[in-house]
Amino acid sequence: MVSRATIYNTIELLLKSKLIIKHQFGNNSSQFERSYKYSQHDHVLCLDTGELLEFCDPRIHEIQESIAKIYNMEITHHSLTFYGRCKDNK
């Protein structure tokens, strides 16, 4: 058996070492995912089922590069989540 404190401390350690990423998708619970380092991906969340899907669209990376150039910035990361209702559940 592992104590709850050990789990929370381990999660904090994994977050600090950037091995996992914490997400809040509009509810009171957190979700964690493995850090992909440089693999850009974004999320789609179904509000009916809570299903979370990942996607990658190269156009988003192009927009990020354009914004960085316009504002003379080095963008280190971004977060994009689309929220919707699954058509199969209606």
Strand order of the largest sheet: 4-3-5
How many strands, which pairing sense, and closed or not: the largest β-sheet?
Answer: 3 strands, mixed
Total strands: 5
Kindly, what is the distance between the CA atoms of the first and last residues, rounded to a whole number of angstroms?
42 Å
Sum up the overall morphology in one term. Answer: flat
Q: Radius of gyration, rounded?
A: 16 Å
Detailed description of the structure:
The chain has helices at residues 4-16, 58-70; strands at residues 20-24, 30-34, 42-46, 52-55, 81-84. With 90 residues, the chain is an alpha+beta fold. A three-stranded mixed β-sheet has the order 4-3-5, with no helix packed on it.
Annotate the secondary structure layout.
Blueprint: H1 4-16, E1 20-24, E2 30-34, E3 42-46, E4 52-55, H2 58-70, E5 81-84
Parallel strand pairs: 3-5
Antiparallel strand pairs: 1-2, 3-4
What are its keywords?
90 residues, alpha+beta, three-stranded mixed beta sheet, two-stranded antiparallel ribbon, 2 helices
